[in-house]
């Protein structure tokens, strides 16, 4: 077939769902009008470890409007059967209301169900709980780690001994919480043994599978609906206990139940980026050629599940060196389970590796970009595979030119603007190009419009818009004649909306489905004696704005509408799919960036202000530049938060989170966001997927924190190896 004209892909189009959002017509999980819905409020454990010995619920149950209080003394036993398709990390799930154990502060121990939200909240405040409390273990530095996950190539210890320059560094990163604008919420309804939930989720299929496993149902007996998600950053990538609680409450009361977590409860059981203690030893020769690296890192996990993330990959493949040794230990603590947060693993590894590279460059008296260039690998040394694409050198070149890197004085504390010390820093970033099997369905109607469906999610990056762009070009239609539907488990299954895999996976499935429909129409036309295209080779026909025509003769053709009506077709339909090639990979797939930052540090007070950030990205084909900019600027803001503000604080006496609110857990606001700019290298990666995309949402946050930390060093001469960077660390 002739390549389709690309009229919408690559165009800076506005969001197709934008009007719904700004007018309040986009319905989020808690906003669906489910007839007869009552309200549920969770009672959280006020100890960090121990057992519930008593629950006095009589006062709560006597309140007007309160219908029922469910807890482990009266809850039915749930099967919690194993299901390999569930979105539950490896390990034992938290079985809510199934026993008296308290495993972390804030664990759900009861739920109050009432006719109004106010009655449920008041009832929850009246539940009296007795405990047999124990001392929880919540400090990463004072707990016994699990057996290490290890990687090694070459003899790293020998490489370090022989290195002319050696660094021995320890980094610490704070726990971070996702804090999306929309709180987690679930509405659950049972009907003749089947369950429907309206839920905030980044994976409707995973939530469907998990609920089926918990309640012992067939998968098709559960329907999950989630058309809009008000931010996620990873927090909605699994089915949390509150979703099970809502479904259980609805089953026990035989009425639909709405459960919305408070902002405080968002800190107690919906995931977080774990804190790390990361020890890195790095060696090089006098010319800056890396010889060896030893990574030893400890990370938080919960006592009842083992959570890991892809933190080792960057240390194995970002730079060329003959010897690498890694030991990654999870440390079980009396905390809720962590979860993936934007740029999972790579974001933390980037801070450590890129800060160390900057420190090495300073010790060698070498420009940080030059040091990185000297250690560019020719292939992925962790797998011995060629890179599908790798244009990091070009990212450096473009970024240095656009940022004005040549104006940076390499001598720390040498540039001032009044009372402010000015510094500039940079860092490289990498994130793997994830792809997973996905399906989509396309239907072309006789009126010339199309509907495309997939059980994907849109938590903000613009899935509705980008998938409509792909579909419109593949079908040869305008954007306004294509409707993309998502967020329903009745639609064809898709992978999680995370890991920057949606465009590559779902987009490729959408492309396949729409290509099939277009080919059906072309076949119908060239075989129809009444069509102007009769007898034309199918490969010579393209479609533009709903009209099929000969590629080199636009006057010869007809519209979809005319073709289908004449042939008595109400519609054409096709199911599309995508899956990465089976068998061993032939290439190493990653996206790359170079991030540049300029900061000002108050010489007296130690306050850090970011003045500008520039990111240059090797992210394959950009489907929507306008959406990409939203992603990139948002990632930069998130990186500023990690670098300077975000820090979840735990009281180790009882496991309580001290700053479980948006007044005390600091995130960037408008005053913290400076001049931000993103540049995307032209290109595509056809080895990765049919669309040639690499994924962008995770990549854009990686490298921001170390670029800022390196700029702080350039400004002050103070090397900070703990995030967030505080004024105290600079005084």
Question: Can you describe this structure?
Answer:
By secondary structure, the chain is of the alpha+beta class. It has 3 domains: 17-26 and 437-578, Aldehyde Oxidoreductase, domain 4 (2-Layer Sandwich); 38-136 and 184-265, Aldehyde Oxidoreductase, domain 4 (2-Layer Sandwich); 388-434 and 589-730, Aldehyde Oxidoreductase, domain 4, CATH 3.30.365. The protein has 17 helices and 30 strands. The strands form 7 sheets. A 7-stranded mixed β-sheet has the order 3-5-1-12-9-10-11, with helices on both faces. Strands 7-15-14-13-8-30 form a 6-stranded mixed β-sheet, with helices on both faces. Strands 16-17-25-26-29 form a 5-stranded mixed β-sheet, with helices on both faces. The model has no long low-confidence stretch (mean pLDDT 97). This is Xanthine dehydrogenase family protein molybdopterin-binding subunit. It holds the Pfam family MoCoBD_2. Residues 23-135 form the Aldehyde oxidase/xanthine dehydrogenase a/b hammerhead domain. It comes from Streptomyces sp. SID12501. GO terms for molecular function: iron ion binding; oxidoreductase activity.
Please specify the SSE layout and strand pairing.
Blueprint: H1 18-22, E1 38-44, E2 50-56, H2 58-61, E3 66-71, E4 101-102, E5 108-114, H3 117-126, E6 128-133, E7 149-153, H4 156-162, E8 165-173, E9 185-191, E10 194-199, H5 204-215, E11 222-225, H6 241-253, E12 257-260, H7 266-269, E13 276-284, E14 290-302, H8 313-317, E15 323-333, H9 346-364, H10 368-374, H11 392-403, E16 416-417, E17 420-432, E18 438-445, E19 450-453, H12 463-475, E20 482-485, H13 502-527, E21 541-544, E22 547-550, E23 553-559, H14 560-566, E24 571-578, E25 590-602, E26 608-618, H15 625-644, E27 650-651, E28 656-657, E29 675-680, H16 704-716, E30 722-723, H17 727-730
Parallel strand pairs: 1-12, 8-30, 10-11, 14-15, 19-20, 26-29
Antiparallel strand pairs: 1-5, 2-4, 2-6, 3-5, 7-15, 8-13, 9-10, 9-12, 13-14, 16-17, 17-25, 18-19, 18-24, 21-22, 22-23, 25-26, 27-28
Helix pairs in contact: 9-16, 12-13, 15-16
């Amino acid at each position: 077939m002739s390549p389709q004209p690309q009229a919408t892909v690559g165009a800076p189009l506005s969001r197709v769902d934008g009007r719904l959002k700004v007018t309040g017509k986009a319905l989020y999980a808690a906003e669906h009008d489910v007839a007869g819905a009552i309200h549920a409020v969770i009672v959280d454990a006020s100890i960090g470890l121990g057992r519930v010995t008593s629950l006095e619920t009589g006062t709560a149950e006597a309140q007007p409007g309160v219908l029922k209080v469910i807890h482990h003394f009266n809850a039915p036993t749930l099967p919690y059967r194993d299901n390999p398709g569930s979105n539950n990390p490896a390990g034992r799930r938290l079985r809510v209301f199934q026993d008296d154990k308290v495993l972390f502060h804030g664990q759900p121990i009861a739920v109050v169900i009432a006719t109004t939200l106010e009655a449920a909240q008041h009832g929850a405040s009246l539940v009296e709980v007795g405990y047999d409390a124990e001392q929880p273990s919540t400090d990463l530095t004072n707990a016994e780690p699990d057996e290490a996950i290890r990687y090694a190539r070459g003899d790293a210890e020998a490489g370090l001994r022989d290195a002319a320059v050696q660094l021995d560094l320890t980094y610490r990163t704070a726990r971070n919480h996702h804090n999306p604008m929309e709180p987690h919420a679930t509405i659950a309804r049972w009907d003749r043994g089947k369950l429907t939930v309206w839920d905030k989720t980044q994976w409707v299929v995973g939530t469907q599978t998990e609920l089926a496993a918990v309640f012992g149902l067939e998968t098709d007996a559960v329907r999950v609906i989630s058309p809009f998600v008000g931010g996620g950053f990873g927090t909605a990538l699994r089915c949390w206990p509150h979703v099970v609680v809502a479904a259980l409450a609805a089953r026990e009361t035989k009425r639909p139940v709405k459960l919305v977590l408070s902002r405080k409860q968002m800190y107690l059981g919906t995931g977080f980026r774990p804190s790390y203690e990361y020890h890195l030893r790095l060696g090089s020769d006098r010319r800056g050629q890396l010889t060896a690296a030893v990574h030893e890192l400890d990370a938080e996990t919960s006592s009842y599940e083992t959570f890991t993330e892809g933190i080792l990959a960057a240390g194995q493949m970002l730079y060329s060196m003959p010897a690498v040794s890694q030991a990654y230990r999870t440390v079980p603590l009396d905390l809720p389970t962590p979860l993936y947060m934007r740029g999972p693993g790579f974001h933390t590894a980037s801070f450590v590796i890129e800060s160390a590279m900057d420190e090495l460059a300073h010790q060698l008296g070498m420009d940080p970009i030059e040091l990185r260039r000297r250690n560019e690998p020719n292939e992925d040394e962790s797998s011995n595979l060629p890179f599908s694409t790798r244009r990091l050198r070009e990212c450096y070149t473009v970024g240095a030119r656009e940022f004005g890197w040549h104006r940076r004085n390499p001598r720390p504390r040498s540039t001032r603007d009044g009372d402010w010390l000015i510094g500039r820093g940079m860092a490289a970033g990498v994130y793997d190009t994830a792809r997973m099997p996905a399906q989509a369905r396309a239907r072309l109607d006789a009126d010339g419009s199309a509907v495309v469906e997939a059980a994907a999610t849109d938590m903000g990056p613009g899935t509705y818009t980008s998938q409509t762009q792909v579909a419109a070009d593949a079908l040869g239609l305008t954007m306004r004649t294509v409707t993309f539907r998502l967020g329903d488990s009745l639609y064809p299954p898709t992978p999680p909306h995370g890991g920057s895999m949606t465009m590559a996976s779902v987009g490729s499935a959408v492309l396949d489905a729409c290509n099939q429909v277009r080919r059906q129409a072309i076949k119908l036309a060239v075989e129809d004696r009444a069509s102007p295209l009769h007898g034309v080779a199918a490969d010579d026909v393209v479609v533009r704005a709903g009209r099929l025509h000969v590629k080199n003769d636009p006057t010869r053709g007809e519209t979809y509408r005319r073709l289908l009506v004449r042939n008595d077709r109400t519609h054409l339909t096709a199911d599309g799919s995508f899956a990465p090639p089976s068998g061993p990979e032939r290439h190493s797939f990653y996206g790359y960036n170079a991030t540049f930052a300029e900061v000002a540090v108050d010489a007296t007070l130690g306050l850090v202000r970011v003045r500008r950030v520039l990111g240059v990205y090797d992210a394959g084909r950009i489907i929507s530049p306008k959406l990409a900019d939203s992603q990139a600027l948002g990632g930069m803001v998130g990186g500023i938060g990690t670098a300077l503000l975000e820090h979840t604080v735990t009281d180790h006496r009882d496991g309580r989170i001290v700053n479980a609110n948006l007044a005390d857990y600091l995130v960037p606001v408008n005053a913290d966001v400076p001049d931000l700019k993103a540049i995307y290298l032209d290109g595509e990666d056809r080895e990765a997927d049919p669309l040639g995309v690499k994924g962008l949402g995770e990549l854009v946050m990686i490298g921001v924190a170390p670029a800022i930390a390196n700029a702080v060093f350039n400004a002050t001469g103070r090397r900070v190896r703990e995030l967030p960077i505080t004024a105290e660390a600079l005084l």
